[in-house]
Amino acid sequence: MYMNSNPFDPGLKGAICVVTGGARGIGSAIARRLLDADCSVHVIDRDREPIQKWKETIGSAHEGMLHCHRADVSDASAIRQVLGKMEKLDVLVNNAGTPGYQPFSKMSRNEWDRTLQNNATGAFQCSRLALNKLRKSKRAAIVNVSTIEANMPESGTAHYAAAKGALESFTCALAVELGPEHIRVNTVAPGAITVAHNKELF
Question: What is the per-residue pLDDT for 105?
């Protein structure tokens, strides 16, 4: 087993990584850190504008290492097409998600379904489609990005907290099932981060 003596070096040099929702916010910070660790990073985002801004921000510093794809994690065919371009995969970061704030008394079934789809089902779908490629890696890992809302929800986050709670349970179950295959599965649960869609909260 590889033992890394440098605590600031994740030991992922040369790894092929996918970061969903990777063109902005926490996703872009994760992607940048992986690039700094000399990984080949495939960023998936559903919107064209953040992808373009991300490319301009990175510039030529990581030329040939950053690959951007416009796709929605809810679209199985689009994700399958993106993954099909890779010979192998070492790390999948399921970061794509949509926070939501809506009083339960006003919450529609459509809002509930959309939030579960974006935050839980998308991670399931990407993990399932990436599984065969991860099985070929000797350092395979899945990282699901949750939130402290899963365990300490605020008022108006019933759908979002439920979705992230499901994601955390999914992570635990997947870790048990895939651990014997040497595929690590973990969750990180950050607090609130200032990004475009929630600046008014700070």
Answer: 96
